Amino acid sequence: MDNNYGHAVNLKQYRRLNGKWQFVPVVKENGKPNPKLVLIDGKVVSSKGGVFYLDWREEGKRRTRPVGSSPRGALEAWRLQSGIRTGEIQPEDEPDDSGKGLSIDRAIENFLVEVKATKGERTYKEYRHHLDWFRARCAKRYVSELDRSDAMKMFAQGREERANGQPLNQKTINKRVIVTLNAMRSQGAAIEMKKGDWPKTIEKKIEIYQPEELKKFFDACGPEERLVFQVFLCTGFREREVATLSWSDIHWKEGKLGVSAKPALRFTPKSYEERSVPVPMSLIAALRERKKTSDSLLVFPTLPHPTRPEYGAGNKPDGRMLILCKEVAFRAGLNCGHCKGEYTVYALSKGIAAKVKRTYKCDTAPRCGNWYLHKFRHTFATNILQSVDIRSLQVMLGHKNIATTEKYLKSLRLDQLRERIESSTLAAYV
Questions:
Q1: Is the whole model's pTM more than 0.85, yes or no?
Q2: Residue 352 near residue 31, CB atoms below 8 Å
Q3: CA 152 to chain centre
């Protein structure tokens, strides 16, 4: 072992700042790096959007090594290199006498490389999140050690966290187990589940906005805000589909709005299917008026930053649509008043980031859980199904499987049942 092994291993990130690529330090908490956060101009910010590097001195020279863009992978690489420097871990090029084969951490990275090559960016991030959750709760180190009991522990852990107020439902827990099983099986794990192992999930009723709610909501909107949410309501588009909507996606004569791939914005339609949806001509007219004053390729670009002109101006998709939805609902007095919880902010003290928890209630803050963008999609589908067949609705929504679309039939049938109940002979006795 050389006498430089006692030197610290540092973790930094290489990212683009003000048009230039440069290194920034990763925030340290209790002597350990937190790769989710970096320091830029003395401020703690998210580390999204760069590549991590290890930095240490060996034999009198500075060494650097890229360790990917995943915070978890970067932290694992830092732990490994730190262990090598202190002699607690053997370097990888020395014989591995464990006899247990592939590590779980390496298996996860291998699987995610395949996902990144074949799936969309959002799917990759979702899978990464699920596997990080699994890894943080699994004490085993090797794929060969995994068995059915680990899946059952995931079910139990998820339920325990849900009971303690974590935002987990059974569908989310099941999805995390499915992703974990797929990942580990693809890397050689022999995990066999038994019949009855999978907890049943409750089929939630589809929530839609009621006419009186929509009236109050749109009355509280400014002109530009109104147009954004009219597009959501009249197309059933997903958030990213509206955010990346360009003027070339509008078919002015046919009165249609389209969804198309935009590689420059790293956007691919879900299920890789481009589509177009007919909308009222009054909406087309409103969009035509907006285009007269727009100098962007996008219909709804991010507004320019008040102090950093190079940030967010021009052709960047608006990432604040959910926040805006909740702000309008709060402004309109539509919050339920019962949502409450806490959120975490980071404060910098003597160069160290400290977590500070703050509480909120939706009667005093725009954080109501009843107002979210996908609810506009549900509202669109439920209402339009009264005028089109289920197959047409499937195409308009961009569903790969018609079974996904058929859930809206239940809401329609319940509405029809309500009319029959009110006109039945039984109602005369009430």
A1: no
A2: no
A3: 25
Query: Counting Cβ atoms within 10 Å, is residue 74 exposed (0-12), middle (13-18) or buried (19+)?
Result: buried
For 43-85, what is each residue's pLDDT tens digit? Answer: 898 888 778 888 888 777 787 777 777 888 788 888 888 877 7
* Contact between residue 102 and residue 187 where contact means Cβ atoms under 8 Å apart: yes
Domain residues of the chain, as ranges? 10-86, 104-186, 211-334+370-376
Residues paired with residue 142 on neighbouring β-strands, in sequence order = 103
Say how many C-beta atoms besides its own lie within 10 A of residue 383's C-beta: 18
Closest to 127 in 3D by CA, of 163, 161, 175 = 175
SS3 (DSSP) at 312: coil
**SS3 labels along 57-121:** EECCEEEEEECCCCHHHHHHHHHHHHHHHHCCCCCCCCCCCCCCCCEHHHHHHHHHHHHHHHCCH
The 10s digit of each residue's pLDDT in 345-398 is 777 666 666 777 888 899 999 999 999 999 999 999 999 988 899 999 999 999
Q: How far is CA 164 from CA 134, 160, 322, in A?
A: 18, 6, 26
Token pair 């609902």 is found at: 329
In 3D space, the residue among 140, 84, 76, 82 whose CA is nearest the CA of residue 112 turns out to be: 76
In this prediction, residue 96 has a pLDDT band, given cuts at 50, 70 and 90, of: very low
**Top-confidence residue, 227 or 85:** 227
Give the distance, in angstroms, between the CA of residue 80 and the centroid of all CA atoms in the same chain: 29
CA distances from 383 to 210, 263, 374, 402 (A): 11, 33, 14, 18
Selection from 114, 51, 68, 121 nearest residue 266 by Cα: 121
CATH architecture under which domain 211-334+370-376 falls: Orthogonal Bundle (1.10)
List helix spans (H) across 102-222: 104-118, 121-137, 148-163, 170-186, 211-219
**Worst-scoring range by mean pLDDT, 35-44, 93-102, 175-184, 244-253?**
93-102
Question: What is the C-alpha separation between 103 and 382, in angstroms, rounded?
Answer: 48
Asked if 394 and 402 touch (Cβ cutoff 8 Å), the reply is: yes
Q: What sign for the dihedral angle of Cα 297, 300, 302, 303?
A: positive
| pLDDT number for residue 322 | 94
